[in-house]
Amino acid sequence: MAMDAIDYDIFGDDMQYVEIELDPGEAAIGEAGMMMYMQDGIDMDTVFGDGSAAQSGVLGKLVGAGKRLLTGESLFTTVYLNQAEGKRRVAFSAPYPGKIIPVDLSQIGGTLICQKDAFLCAAKGVSLGIAFQRRLGAGFFGGEGFILQRLEGDGMVFFHAGGTIAEKTLAPGESLRVDTGCVAALQPSVDFDVQYVGKLRSALFGGEGLFFARLTGPGRVWLQTLPLSRLANRIIAAAPSAGGKQVGEGSALGGFGGVLGGDKR
Amino acid sequence: MLTGKHKRNTAGFYDFKVLLFLPGMSPSGIRARLGLRHGVLEFNGPGVWITVLADQVSLRPGGFDGRQWVLSWHTETGPASALLKGEADMRLMRSMASPGLAAQIEQALKIVHRRKRRFQWWIGALSVAVLLPLMAVGLFWLNSERIAGWAAGEISVHDERRLGRMLFARIEPGLKLIEGGPALRMVRELGGRLTQGSAYDYRWYLADSPEVDAYALPGGHVVVFTGLLRLAHSAEEVAGVLAHEVQHVELRHTLKNLIHDQGWRAVLSVALGDMGGSVWADMAHRLGTLEYGRDQEREADLKALESLRRAGIAPHGLVDFFEKLARMEGMGVALLASHPASAERMRNLRAAIAAQGGYPAQALAYDWHAIQRSLRD
To answer: Which of its termini does chain A have fewer beta carbons within 10 Å around, N or C?
Structure first.
C-alpha cells in the first residue's frame, strides 16, 4: 500500500498543534473535529470509515465504522486532499493539554497500539482499527480498558496524550512498572500486564492503587504523565460547583482571598 | 492452514514475517523474514542475516494483549527476540519445527487457548449479568396483560369494593351528581334489573355533564352522564350501555386495566393495605383515559347481550347506540375514546344478536319525553 509521505511541524509547548504540509495530490486523514485550519486548495472530504484502501465494499466499510464506534471514534473520517498546484498546509490541534507525538509506522514494524481517543491525524493510507485487550487483568486494572486503537500502515501518524510524554525503549525481557492509566501507546511486541503492588500496606496507603501496569520489552512505549481522566478528576475535585472545596491558593485570607482576587461569582 | 502470506523462499521453505529485535539494532525492531530448516531459524532482513539454533529459542505468548507470539533467545551481546504474527503462523511453524520447538509451540498454543476460554467465559458471564435483568423486564412487559389479570384475580371482591369506594371518593368532588328525578330512577331500575344476582353491590349515579360518557368503577360504582341520556333515543339504548358497563365490572376489566397501568404499586397497596393517597389520585386520574382492549369489548358485549336477555330487555338498543356514536367519530365523544366502536365490533354485535335468536321482551315503559324534559331543566 502506497502511503503518502508528509512533512510536518509541531507548534506549541503543552497545548500543541501539528501543521502538515501536503504536496500536490497528497492527502492526510484527520479525526473528525480536530482540524484547526487549512489553506486554500485543500479539499476536505468526509468518508465513511478510515479512508484506507483496505476496506472495500459496503460491508467492509460498515464493519470498519462499527469498530470505530467501539473505540469511541466518530463514524466518519475526514480526508484532506491537496488539489492545488503547490504545497499546502493543514493543521490539527490537540484537544487537551499534552503532547502530539509523531510516529513513523515504517520505523516500528508497521503497527502501533494506542489508547482509544488518542489518534489525531495520519498520512492517507494508514488504517485505523481496534485492538482488544484480551488479558482480563490488564483490561480491568491496566487503566486502558479492553479496547485500544490499532494504527497500521507505513506512513506517519500523530497521536495525542496528556501531559508530558516519556518515550521508553525496552530491550527484550526488560520491564518497567508504570502507574495504571499512564500508558499512551506501545508497540504490539511489548507485553502489557498488571502486577500487584506487592505489599498490602503499599496497596492501601501507597496511593498507586492495587496494581501497576507492567510493560516488558522488546519494543517502544510512550507514557503520558497526565491522563485526561486524572486531570478531569482533579478539576472536578477542585470545582466548587461540583462539591469541591475552595482552596485558598496560599492566601492568608483563605476563602476570602478568592473574594479579593475576584474569582468568586 | 497455508494462507497467501506464506511464500516459499528460493530454497523451498516457508517464510514467516517477523519483527526482529537484536541488540545493537533498532530498538523498535526491524522487519525480517524467518525461515526454518533442519532445526535452524534463519532471520533475513535489511542488513541482517543471522541463524539461531531452534533448541536455544524459547517461545511464549506475549505482547500487549497476550496473543502475540514472541520468540526469544540470547546472543553474545544480549537478549534478542522476534515477534511473529498470528496463530496460523504458529500452527504452520509447529508442523515444521524440531521436536523441542514444536513442544514449546504446543505449550504456548495451549496457554493461549486457556486464556481465550477464560476470556470468553468472563465475557459470557458479563453478558448474562447484563442481559438477565433486561430479559426479565422484557418478559414482564410481554406478559403484562396476563400478570395484570393474575393480580386482579388475587384481589378479593371485598378489596375491590374498597378500592372502588376510595376511587369514587376521589372522583365524587368533581361530579355534579343529580340526587333524584325520573332519569336517575330509570338508571337505577334498569341497573337493578341488569345486575340481579351479582356478587357486587352496585351504586348508580347520574352526573350532570354534557359529555356523552358512562363509566364503571371496580366494585360496582357506575356513573352515567346526562349527555349520554340526552343522546339516547330510548330506554333500551340506555339499558344497552348500562349492560355493557356492568360487564366491565363483572369481568373486572377496569380493575385489570388499572393494575396494568399502575403496575405493582396498585397490587402492593391493595395487598398490604397501604392506602397512600398518591396511588388513588393517579388511578382516579387514569380512569378517564382508560381504553378497553378489543378483546375486553367483545367479551363485555357478549355478556351484556346475555344479561339483557336475562332481564328481558331487547338487545338492539346497545348496537343502535354505539352505531350512533360511531357516526359521531372525531367529535370528541368521551365514551368512544374508552369504548372504540369499530365496524368490526358492530358486525360482531349484530351477528351475536342474530345467533341469540328472539326472546320475549317487553318494551320498557318509561315516559321518555318526561325524562328528557327533566334533564333539560
So the answer is: C
Across the interface, of B26, B62, B78, the residue whose CB is closest to A191 is B62
Average pLDDT over residues B36-40: 79
**Best residue of B5, B64, B83, B122 to probe chain A, by most A CBs closer than 10 Å:** B64
Looking at CATH, the fold of the domain delimited by A7-234 is given as Double-stranded beta-helix (3.60.160)
- Check B29 against A173: CB less than 8 A apart: no
Enumerate the domain spans of chain A.
7-234
B331 and B231 belong to one structural domain: yes
- Domain assignment present for residue B131? The answer is no
Shortest Cα distance, chain B CAs vs residue A133, angstroms: 5
Residue B46, domain extent = 15-114
Q: What is the pLDDT of residue A176?
A: 94
A-chain CB neighbours of B67 within 8 Å are: 134
The answer to whether residue B50 is domain-embedded is yes
Domain total of chain B: 2
pLDDT in tens, B109-151: 888 888 888 888 988 898 898 888 778 777 777 777 777 777 7
Summarize the confidence of residues B331-352 as an average pLDDT. 77
More confident position, B340 or B178: B178
Smallest Cα distance from A24 to chain B, Å: 31
Name the closest residue on chain B to residue A173, using Cα atoms.
Answer: B79
Which position has the higher pLDDT, B266 or A215?
A215
pLDDT at A168: 93
User: Smallest CA–CA separation between A113 and chain B, in Å?
Assistant: 8
CA distances B377 to A252, B223, B331, B371, Å, are 84, 20, 25, 10
Determine the Cα–Cα distance for residues A202 and A208; give it in Å rounded to an integer.
8
Contacts of A218 in chain B (CB under 8 A): 21, 27, 29, 81, 83
| Rounded Cα distance, B373 and A7, in Å | 97
- Tell if the CB–CB gap between A191 and B66 is shorter than 8 Å: yes
- Contact yes or no for A189 and B19 at CB 8 A: yes
Tell me if B68 is assigned to some domain.
Answer: yes
User: Residue B317: which H helix or E strand, with range?
Assistant: helix B316-327
Question: What CATH number is attached to the domain comprising B101?
Answer: 2.30.29
